[in-house]
């Protein structure tokens, strides 16, 4: 299990790092949307904690960890304050933010899948909730910012697919009774590397086969 990889304190620290980076992405979008300080804080909190809260509510792990651990709640606020005062500098280190975001994606999709399975869900449902843990906050962020969620847009680098692969590796290992610290780490690293490759090589999901272009559709309408 992923809990066997690290001591509880190290696992908690990794969770906080992932939460912090996710919160940074939410706060940056709020700045680009010209939100006020409250809007920046809300988007940071939602982006960082939304996926985990959704998972915990579905599996019955209530109250969610975000409401029982003060560190989980305060970390996004710290990220929001950092972006509020230093957003030009944070924008300039976007590559580093993306790397940590990819690491958080890998960690959360695996941890979410394992937690869902431990609470009695089946393999498919556990994988789905692992995916939701990793990307749910980003979806809520985009909806609140009145944007089409990034993971649904063809012009964005693959984001959900690496999380799906990581969650899929976990449920396969569970099915074949091979889930342990090493295979959990393999799932995290696989999702992490796939996301980094998607960023650097601009991998994108295919669109509908023989799809007409927007120009063709406009001409037909006229």
Structure description:
By secondary structure, this protein is mainly alpha-helical. It has one domain (8-205). The protein is 75% helix and 0% strand. The protein is built from nine helices and no strands. The N and C termini lie far apart (59 Å). The chain crosses the membrane at residues 12-31, 38-58, 70-88, 95-114, 120-140, 160-179, 185-203. It comes from Streptomyces luteolus. This is Trimeric intracellular cation channel family protein. Keywords: Cell membrane, Membrane, Transmembrane, Transmembrane helix.
The number of domains:
1
Provide the low-confidence segments as ranges: 215-221
Radius of gyration computed on alpha carbons: 18 Å
Distance between the termini: 59 Å
> From the helix content, strand content and strand pairing, which structural class follows?
mainly alpha
Multimerization state: single chain
> Helix fraction?
over 70%
SSE ordering? HHHHHHHHH
Classify the beta-strand content into a percent band: under 5%
Instruction: Report the total helices.
Output: 9
Globally, the shape reads: globular
User: What is the average per-residue confidence, as pLDDT, rounded to a whole number?
Assistant: 89
Largest sheet: none
Number of strands: 0
Subcellular location: Cell membrane
Membrane topology: Multi-pass membrane protein
Keywords: Cell membrane, Membrane, Transmembrane, Transmembrane helix
Protein name: Trimeric intracellular cation channel family protein
Question: How would you summarize the topology of this molecule?
Answer:
Blueprint: H1 8-32, H2 37-59, H3 65-68, H4 70-92, H5 94-118, H6 123-144, H7 160-175, H8 181-201, H9 214-221
Helix pairs in contact: 1-2, 1-4, 1-5, 2-4, 2-6, 5-6, 5-7, 5-8, 6-7, 7-8
């Amino acid at each position: 299990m992923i809990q066997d990889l690290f001591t509880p304190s190290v696992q908690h620290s990794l969770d906080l790092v992932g939460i912090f980076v996710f919160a940074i992405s939410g706060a940056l979008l709020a700045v680009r949307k010209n939100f006020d300080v409250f809007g920046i804080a809300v988007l940071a909190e939602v982006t960082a904690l939304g996926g985990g809260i959704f998972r915990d509510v579905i599996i019955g792990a209530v109250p969610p960890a975000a409401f029982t651990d003060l560190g989980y709640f305060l970390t996004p606020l710290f990220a929001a304050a950092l972006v509020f005062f230093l957003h030009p500098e944070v924008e300039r280190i976007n590559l580093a933010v993306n790397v940590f975001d990819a690491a958080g994606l890998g960690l959360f999709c695996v941890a979410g899948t394992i937690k869902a399975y431990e609470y009695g869900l089946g393999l498919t449902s556990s994988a789905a909730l692992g995916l939701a843990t990793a990307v749910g906050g980003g979806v809520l962020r985009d909806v609140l910012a009145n944007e089409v969620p990034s993971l649904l847009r063809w012009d964005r680098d693959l984001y959900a697919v690496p999380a799906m692969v990581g969650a899929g590796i976990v449920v396969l290992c569970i099915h074949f009774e091979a889930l342990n610290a090493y295979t959990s780490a393999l799932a995290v690293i696989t999702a992490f590397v796939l996301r980094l490759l998607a960023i650097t090589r601009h991998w994108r999901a295919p669109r509908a086969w023989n799809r007409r272009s927007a120009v063709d559709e406009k001409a037909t309408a006229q």
